[in-house]
Design brief:
This protein is an all-alpha fold. Helices cover 69% and strands 0% of the residues.
């Protein structure tokens, strides 16, 4: 599967973060080159584009709009500290880039929708867990479960699920 445009922009953004202190260190360049060369999800054209970013400084504000997937943006935010601390120095310019990137990402999200999506995902996980648990637990009546949960909530019985 070839990387999407947003995913390529994510990696271009990672390179831009490495440039945020106005210097791409040799070890940073080597790590990115190794990643690009070994990545089977990048086309030759995508690899060429990423390697161009290694040879000339690229700014995140030029790349950010191309990272269209919110999860790709979140991933870039997630890996930013690792990139910034790679040279053992978290510079003022890197801090500014991180704060702007984070603020821009948060401003682009509809938090009400995001919270609902998380609640739906949590419900789905609970349901999957209940289904898995049901495979290994003998059936218990509704009233028994209710009494157990009330007692547990009151701290009266912590370990004895009714049979």
């Amino acid at each position: 599967m070839t990387a999407t445009d947003s995913q390529v922009a994510l990696w271009r953004g990672a390179i831009a973060l490495a440039w945020a202190d106005n210097h791409l260190h040799d070890d940073e360049r080597a790590e990115f080159t190794n990643f690009i060369d070994k990545n089977k999800n990048l086309s030759d054209e995508q690899k060429k584009l990423l390697k161009q970013d290694l040879s000339k400084q690229v700014k995140l504000e030029e790349i950010w709009p191309q990272i269209t997937d919110k999860m790709d943006r979140a991933h870039l935010i997630n890996i930013a500290p690792t990139i910034f601390w790679g040279d053992k120095d978290y510079s003022h310019s890197e801090k500014e880039v991180f704060e702007k990137m984070y603020a821009d990402h948060m401003a682009s999200l509809d938090m009400k929708t995001e919270m609902q999506d998380m609640a739906n995902f949590a419900q789905k996980l609970r349901l999957q867990s209940d289904i898995e648990t049901a495979k290994y637990v003998k059936p218990v009546s509704f009233i028994s479960r209710l009494i157990y949960n009330i007692e547990k909530g009151l701290g009266l019985d912590k370990d004895n699920m009714p049979s």
